[in-house]
Amino acid sequence: MTDPRAPLIEVRNLRKVFGQTVAVDNVSFDIYPAEILALVGESGSGKTTVGRMISGLEDKSGGSVSLRAATDAASMERLPDRYRKQDFRRYGQRIQMIFQDPLSSLNPFFNAGEVISEALRFAGQKPTLEAQLHWLKEAGLQPDHLHRLPHELSGGQRQRLCIARALCMRPEVIVSDESVSALDVSVQAQILALLLRLQDTHDLTLIFITHDLNVVRQIASRVLVMKRGQIVESGPADQVFDAPRHEYTRALLAACPIPQVD
To answer: What is the pLDDT of residue 146?
Structure first.
């Protein structure tokens, strides 16, 4: 039996250098099954780069990311430092990423049904009409969205389509990179509620990358605070919000007050 306290992902001494710029500097942490972990920090803190390295979308300059082995839950499997096509097929189904700008991450010539079909084929599943409709429904889209192109959908609908595309591969981990930051507040709340529901019903591990601490208050169970490529504070969300230890965390909280409800 798998120990629920054992990490699903281990990040050790992770490092990324772009030219002369150290974007991520010796970062280490664990990610546990079915938790919602928030990576927070200002622009340039390195949080998105960490998410992309976990997902295999960014090469690593140093350190490692290890994922619990699919065939042996008691062991960890180190992910490649540089992904090749076969690596995406091997690990891409297990770790999926949702991006800030859904329009740029969707093929403009594929309608919603074709987006889901392509993902299903990648995952080795049959892209039936029934499957397309099922996954669109899971993300809160309707049958009449099936034949719409990305530019014919609203921003919230496009993000729902990206969520459906990730979900249909049946991943264990979804990395959400500022996935609600460009949305209106009302739509943002709907997408957050959707992610929480899907995380619960599909037993997902969710890595939520954001600069918005008010979003983190609503969704995260644990928080890592990043500044200039390093983790400066970590802990349960309540602890980080109620008793922040690092001055940078306190500054972030002061700049993002709790919204007042009339």
So the answer is: 97
Task: Output 42-46 pairs: Cβ under 8 A, ≥24 positions apart.
Answer: 42/211, 42/227, 42/252, 43/211, 44/228, 45/226, 45/227, 45/228, 45/229, 46/16, 46/226, 46/228, 46/229, 46/230
Domain limit, last residue, from 170, 185, 219: 170
Per-residue pLDDT band for 33 (boundaries 50, 70, 90) equals very high
For 114, the domain range is 103-170
**Total domain count for the chain?**
2
Residues 181 and 200 in one domain: yes
- Amino acid residing at 15: R
- Which tokens hold the place of 165? 């595309």
| Residue 41 tokens, joined | 């920090």
Q: Does one domain contain both 88 and 63? A: yes
Same domain, yes or no: 75 and 197: yes
- Average pLDDT value for residue range 239-260: 85
pLDDT digits (tens, 9 = 90+) for 79-106: 998 888 888 888 888 999 999 888 999 9
**Residues 84, 182 within the same domain:** yes
DSSP state of 145: G
Structure tokens of 226? 């990043």
What is this structure's pTM? 0.91
